[in-house]
Amino acid sequence: MICHEYQDQLQEHLGQDRLPDDLARHLDDCSECNQVWKDLLELGGHLGQDSVFYPETEESELVARVIEREVRATTTVTVVRPVWLVRLSAVAAAALLLISTGLVVERYSGRQVRTSADTTSAQVADSGVPAVQNEDDEMPAETINLLIREVSTRGTFEAGDQLLDDLSDDEVSYLKTALKAGDLL
Amino acid sequence: MATSVDPLLETLAHAAQAGDQKAFGELVKKLMNPVMALTYRMSGDRDTASDLAQETFVAAWKELAHFRGQSSIKSWIWRIAANRSLNYLESKNRRRKLEQTIPPVELTTHDSPDHQYERDELRRDVLAFMATLPPQQRLVFDLRFYQQCSFEEISQIMGRALGTVKTLYREAVSKLRIHARQTGWRS
Question: Does B161 contact chain A (CB < 8 Å)?
Fold first, then answer.
């Protein structure tokens, strides 16, 4: 290697604590390159160290506080839900939709659906699931309670099927056409 | 040194990755000064440096899930700070403003008057020199000289070829030697 190449390498090492051995050896033998290195060291000394550019303590603390606030604000709590719980939620939502649909149909069609609230209440009391009382006796309380129990214990569509079974063909037909609930049913 | 891995920083980073805000706060404390020094020399302005440092750490928190440990956490945060600084510098209006203004030097309060004067002079000289360098060259010079990064590390941080990084540094040093002669840094 010629001196020019050594000097290029010396420039690359400005600011470094140690020189590679081959470079250090060359400096021992070459006064010109040695002088270049001394000049570079002097320049390096004039540039100071990183700490010269550190902020005042108060300033860095202020920035740290702002960052802390931002971090708190951007933190989102991630709750991992079991898959079965997500599915149950979907089932419950579908069941509630069916119930509300039934309520609307009953209210506007003026039909009287048979009730057996007393029996249902007794059944539900055994299961520990609170019964729903239907004040107007317009809806089949038995079905509602069965539905709730099914959803809260097993999370399947069986309760929805039960509800459909309780509806007459005309009622189902009405739901499909008038309320556009065909896909759900 | 940036090239060595600090086990404490890595531990804090992993805890922060798991959502530990306190650990992240400690990480911020450890790296605040060097990050702010970097952004200060890159931007030439203390207020901007604070803003860039703030953006750096907030971005780091948001992106921490993507930190895979392929580099040290310090290098990873350096990369964010470098990108933020370059984006700032490459904004045309701000760049023009930077080149036309003399870098302000803030007053320090805990130094003796003589020492304070020397430090302020030194900062002014360095910021004036840094302002003459194009952004990429400035960043390479800062990471190499002040942060003591290896060229390989700088290459990773900047996403530039190793040879390019070395060339940028040599050019910066050549400019420094010329600048020193012109401004009488050397006796």
Answer: no
Query: Do B156 and B75 contact (CB within 8 A), yes or no?
Result: yes
Name the DSSP class of B161: -
Structure tokens at A118: 């007393």
Residue with tokens 């360098």: B133
Per the listing, tokens 């030439």 go with B44
Q: Which residue has the higher pLDDT, B49 or A92?
A: B49
Quick one: which of B113, B133, B41 has its CA closest to B81? B41
Which of A51, A64, A74 is nearest residue B61 as measured by Cβ atoms? A74
Q: Give me B74's structure tokens.
A: 């310090």
ipTM summary value: 0.83
CA-wise closest residue to A168 among A114, A90, A92, A100: A114
CB contact (8 A) between residue B54 and residue A66: yes
Whole-number Å distance between alpha carbons of B153 and B169 = 13
